[in-house]
Amino acid sequence: MNAARILFLAAVPTFGQWINYPSANIPRTADGKADLSAPAPRGLDGKPDLSGIWNANFNPVIPPGVVLYSSTLPGFDLQAWRTAAAPIPMTPWAEAIFSERTRNFTRDMPSAHCLPHGIPEGMMLDTFKIMHSAGTTLVLFEEGPRFRQIFTDGRSHPREMNPAWFGYSVGKWEGDTLVVDTRGLNDQSWLDPAGHPHSDQLRIIERFQRKNLGQMDVELTFEDPVAYREPWSATLRFELDPDTELIENVCENEKDREHLVGRTPSDDAAKIRLPIETLRQYAGTYGNGPTLEIVLTQSGLVMAGMLLTPKSETQFSTNSGVVTFVKDSQGRVEKVVGEFVGGEMFEIPRKR
Predict the structure, then answer these.
(1) Which of these, 71, 120, 118, 65, lies nearest to 234 by C-alpha position?
(2) pTM (2 decimals)?
(3) Is residue 29 part of a domain?
């Protein structure tokens, strides 16, 4: 189990309607649970059936020392899902927007105004359901509720496209992979909860692959000459949520945004500096089963892609919470304790 896995075990709760009502026609283990490792189901046309209710997997494998500079949990940042560690190739225009969103803890994300999540942000944050019919694959989002249509009847994109939140999607099968080409998007949505921007020239290619009953991978390639110097890709993982249904989740009477605050220059000035000898004592391996690596880099201490910024000699802030190092009576680092936005916590002893 990697460091991010430790952090995100309880990152996002799942909700549903008709909880524990058995989904039909899926293989089960001896105890009656869905056999998520069973082969992917297939439709009457022989193609993989992507139907089901899906949630994003929030456990990216982040090499020790890699720093993610967004103001959200690593699993919500497309950079963490890149097959290569190379930074997302943003243009200066996109970098300026992304930096401002990071500085202000993404307080202006569209959903703060009850506006839709974009692609793939909606799939990263929201439970969604895929349904197939003749010539159309329908994606239903729990939040909103909203829907997205992917036409597989052989049509091309229309000559004139009115910019839309979900754009215009056409798909085709290449072997066992559903390839979806989406264009005609507006420039108001975000690519991910971390705040990567895009223009209305964005084109997204998605490659849906159902690996087995319980797992689906979606490789995404983004082309946008305004926001990105070259096309780039990331691969997201999704897990089936069987024996449940979507529940209505409507954004109404929103009162939270007025209480959201960003970061001011005085916040940055308040940062303290610790001697390298002090930082070095915290670097190392934590945990005696699943392990958490804390690495000392030129930027400072890094944990699961998050830079630890000193608040005191033993307490550090991250892009999404607070980490505290606890010492024993002899001054040796005994354990690390973390508390994150949303109430997630961990306490891990130092490996001896």
Answers:
(1) 120
(2) 0.83
(3) no
Same domain as 219, residue 296: no
User: Do 236 and 192 belong together in one domain?
Assistant: yes
Q: What is the pLDDT of residues 12-68, one digit of tens each?
A: 444 556 777 888 889 999 999 999 999 999 998 999 999 999 999 988 888 877 888
What is the count of structural domains for the chain? 2
212 and 157: one domain?
yes
**Domain around 208:** 35-240
75 within domain boundaries: yes
